[in-house]
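Deliverable D4.2, example record:
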Amino acid sequence: MNSNNDLYDFFLDNIQKIFVPEDLVRIELSMSRFELQALMLVGRSQNVTMGNLAQGMSAPVSTATGIVDRLVKKGLLKRDRNEEDRRIVTVTLTDNGKALLKELKDHFYKFLNRIRNLLSEEEFETGLQLVRKVILGFQKEGQEPKGELAQQRRSIMIE
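Output generated by the structure prediction step:
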C-alpha cells in the first residue's frame, strides 16, 4: 500500500472515520470552515481586533468583516468599539460562542484520546513529531520563492 493510488483509495475509504466522527456531526455545525476558523481564533485570543483577526486568517479585513457579520447574526460573536479610538473594532465570543467552542474542544479531546488508546506513548509522540514536521514544511514551502520567481528578484541599490 505504498503507491499514491493505494494511499488515496485507503484515505478516501476511511476519511469519515478519522475526520468526521459521528459525535462531531451531531453538533450540526452550520458554518463554513472560514467561520469556524474565525470563531476559534477569537476564542484563543478572547478579545481580538478586526485587523488582527484578518491577519490570523490570512485574509483581507473586508473578508474577515463578512465572516464576522455572519457569526454575529448567528449569535456566536459580538463586536465592540474601543472607547479610546472608535475606529478600532474588537470581536469577542458570546456565551453561545463559548459554549460551541467548548463542545468542539471536548470532541477534539475525545478524538485525541481515541488515538492515544490505539497507540503506544512512543508511537503517539512520533506521530505528533511527524505532523509538526509536515505542517512546518508546508509553511516554509509557502514562504520561499520558487524557481523563476527567485531568479527574477533583483537588488536595487539606494543611494
